Amino acid sequence: MEPIRHQLVVPCTPVEAFDAWVEDIGQWWHPDYTPDPAGFRGAGIEARVGGRVYLVDATLGEVEWGRVLAIARGALVVHSSTLGQDPAHPSRVSVQFVPLDEGGTRIEFAHEGWDESNAQFRHKFTDWPLILARYAQFVGP
């Protein structure tokens, strides 16, 4: 199955865009895209291969929703994703940070890894533009 792809441009360097994505995900991630929006207390990405991607819930504590598969500060982060899916059949989120000659960074986003084992969950991810817009607003002017 085709990846879900989106691109956006943010007015900061690739390192700043990467740091906001990885270090500040708990500040820009929208609580509506968690199991319990009222209980959402934050999210995190451990910036190393094998590191956890997780959310923090008031009742459940830390809930893992993926593992970092590749990471290069200012360039790329790739992680598995089980948020809203069967944990036995994760998909994959890939975010590339591309410097622009005129300044700023192009974010090349792909939610991929869809196959027969997880295709039934793909329809849940039509709101990526809203999530990415929230990220862009967080790093914007």
Fold blueprint:
Elements: E1 4-10, H1 14-23, H2 25-28, E2 40-45, E3 52-57, E4 61-72, E5 76-81, E6 91-99, E7 105-112, H3 128-139
Antiparallel strand pairs: 1-7, 2-3, 3-4, 4-5, 5-6, 6-7
* Count of beta strands: 7
Helicity, as a percent range: 10-25%
Strand content: 35-45%
Mean pLDDT: 95
CATH architecture verdict: 2-Layer Sandwich
Structural class: alpha+beta
- As residue ranges, the low-confidence spans are none
Return the string of H and E elements. Answer: EHHEEEEEEH
- Overall geometric form: globular
Rg, rounded, reads 14 Å
CATH superfamily: START domain
Give the strand line-up of the largest sheet. 1-7-6-5-4-3-2
Number of domains: 1
**Largest beta-sheet details:** 7 strands, antiparallel
Distance separating the two termini? 36 Å
CATH overall fold name: Alpha-D-Glucose-1,6-Bisphosphate, Chain A, domain 4
Number of helices: 3
Q: Would you give an account of this structure?
A:
Residues 13-122 form the Activator of Hsp90 ATPase homologue 1/2-like C-terminal domain. This is Activator of Hsp90 ATPase homologue 1/2-like C-terminal domain-containing protein. It comes from Cellulomonas humilata. Belongs to the AHA1 family. The protein is α+β, with helices and mostly antiparallel strands and 141 residues long. The protein has a single domain (4-139), classed as START domain (Alpha-D-Glucose-1,6-Bisphosphate, Chain A, domain 4, 2-Layer Sandwich). Helices cover 18% and strands 38% of the residues. It is built from three helices and seven strands. The chain has helices at residues 14-23, 25-28, 128-139; strands at 4-10, 40-45, 52-57, 61-72, 76-81, 91-99, 105-112. A seven-stranded antiparallel beta sheet has the order 1-7-6-5-4-3-2. The protein is globular, with a radius of gyration of 14 Å.
